[in-house]
TrEMBL record:
Main location: endoplasmic reticulum
Catalyzed reactions: Hydrolyzes the peptide bond -P2-(S-farnesyl or geranylgeranyl)C-P1'-P2'-P3'-COOH where P1' and P2' are amino acids with aliphatic sidechains and P3' is any C-terminal residue
Protein name (record): CAAX prenyl protease 2
Membrane topology: Multi-pass membrane protein
GO cellular component: endoplasmic reticulum membrane
Keyword tags: Endoplasmic reticulum, Hydrolase, Membrane, Protease, Transmembrane, Transmembrane helix
Protein family per UniProt: Belongs to the peptidase U48 family.
Leading EC class: hydrolase
Domain CAAX prenyl protease 2/Lysostaphin resistance protein A-like: 133-224
Matching PANTHER family: CAAX PRENYL PROTEASE 2, PROTEASE U48 CAAX PRENYL PROTEASE RCE1
Single GO biological process annotation from the record: CAAX-box protein processing
Organism (species): Nippostrongylus brasiliensis (Rat hookworm)
A Pfam family recorded for this sequence: Rce1-like
Length: 272
């Protein structure tokens, strides 16, 4: 798949229009504009979890999406792409598969987390659905971030870089963009590393599916479930529960690796 994709991208680079320098520059500017729009919306320093702040920042993120999609569409069209929206993953073909199979993959990966939530505090977890932060973190955040960082940035970089290099390079601005609201240096390093790893996966997912819904649904589920809570396992007094949780986490990771290839075949998503 990657070899065929590389051949396709090489053909695209030989066509006229906007050069790679401009495409890469836009892919760097879009993350800056995303963060810039958010700061402009909250220039008075309001708490980012305040409902009014969430509304302002959501409007700013949507406005940035409109700008980025418009510019990316024009850039791809100028490079000779006859279907810019398809290249950005904004298409209806393969939509159901893009919702189903990535959800299965990430849910399998989080097997241990599901078991822990069941054993620990499911009612507290459900209460989070009623908060404004849930709307931001699980709905608006994933949609607006994936449109900017995957649909626009990856679409532009794919014209100039091989699929493998795109997977390596594209998540860097995405990871850096999450550092602006973290004060502690150690948390900054951890957050950047985690976000980069996540970014490489959803970039691979986007390239395989060419469907915006695939990274969006994955991002939403990951934000909903959070980081694996390995540290919580030893707090369970029951040895049976501890063994069950470690087994669930390990088996989830193993099954995820085994299913990754079969469930990301382009044919499943009508990505011919």
């Amino acid at each position: 798949m990657l070899e065929e994709s590389e051949a396709y991208q090489n053909e695209g680079r030989e066509e006229g229009g906007m050069g790679c320098g401009a495409s890469i520059s836009l892919a760097v500017l879009f993350p800056l504009s995303f963060v810039g729009f958010l700061h402009l919306a909250d220039h008075n320093g309001t708490d980012r979890n305040d409902p009014q702040s969430i509304r302002k920042r959501s409007i700013a993120a949507i406005a940035n999406n409109v700008l980025c999609v418009t510019v990316t569409y024009a850039a791809l069209w100028q490079r000779g792409d006859s279907s810019p929206l398809r290249s950005m993953g904004l298409r209806t073909e393969g939509a159901l598969s893009a919702i189903l199979w990535p959800s299965v993959l990430v849910s399998v990966l989080y097997t241990g987390q599901w078991v822990l939530l069941y054993l620990d505090a499911p009612f507290e977890w459900r209460a989070a659905f009623q908060k404004y932060t849930f709307i931001r973190d699980v709905i608006l955040g994933p949609v607006t971030e994936e449109i900017t960082f995957r649909c626009c940035c990856v679409a532009l970089l794919s014209n100039c870089l091989s699929p493998t290099m795109t997977i390596v390079v594209a998540p860097l601005p995405f990871a850096c963009s999450h550092l602006h609201h973290i004060g502690d240096d150690r948390r900054r390093v951890f957050q950047m590393a985690y976000t980069y790893v996540f970014g490489t996966y959803v970039t691979y997912l986007f390239q395989s599916t060419k469907q915006a819904l695939a990274p969006v649904i994955t991002h939403a589920i990951c934000n909903c479930l959070g980081l694996p809570l390995f540290g919580e396992i030893d707090t369970f007094p029951s040895q049976f529960h501890r063994v069950l949780l470690w087994t669930a986490y390990a088996s989830g990771m193993y099954c995820f690796v085994m299913l990754l290839g079969p469930l990301t075949q382009p044919e499943l998503y009508q990505n011919w």
